[in-house]
Design brief:
264 residues, mainly alpha, 11 helices, 79% helix, membrane, cell membrane, cilium, transmembrane helix
Amino acid sequence: MEKSTVIGIVLGFVAVIVGMILKGASPVALVNPAALMIIFVGTAASLFIGFSLEELKGFPKLIKIAFTEQKTIPKMDLINLFTDWVSITRREGLLAMESKVEEIQDPFLRNGMRMIIDGNDQDFVHDVLMEDIQAMQERHRSGAQIFTQAGTYAPTLGVLGAVIGLIAALSNLNDVESLGHLISAAFVATLLGIFSGYVLWHPIANKLKQKSKKEVEIRLMMVEGLLSIQSGISSTAVKQKLMIFIPTSQRDEKNESKAGDRDE
């Protein structure tokens, strides 16, 4: 479970509900079937018009990704893995890795290692792996775009809902007692539209983009590591090359901890 996503959504609901109570409004007003219909069904309709069914089939999976903690290999673990592999291949040759290929859990890394063991040209391996990354980025971009567009449509549909509510209110000017209730109900759609757009859809789109960026970084590290194995450079050189992907602050922490271990 991605705790930050759950915490954010809960805080969003709490902020609105507590804010309404502090302003003297009843949170029960949010349970407005007409407003919910206009915002959520209207947003769904806009997405069906704007995207193909093939793209929208992945909507439930994208929601699951936003609420599921991302499982990627830690960067330092990946660096240690490649330094070990480089040591093995320099000592025993590339074919020594053949027995370890099936132990690799990550499909991208496993495929890259197989291409290297099969003796493919370094440029060919680089091109295939980079094209794979680019294809993945495009898939992720298309998925995040669905939520970005939903976040754009929802607030505008909220204005539409307010207009519809005001039309209903103005058509009942003779009923003074219910006029205030009808006007307040009209703006519930605006509230729901802005809330769903800027507390749900846009943040989920951003979450998906961040997860995609992290996965791309890990795969770029894999590409560099695999090509380093193929080129036959030393394990020290591989480590220096891959440490570029580690933030400077974390590199300094690693160096300090190693220095402390040597002092002891």
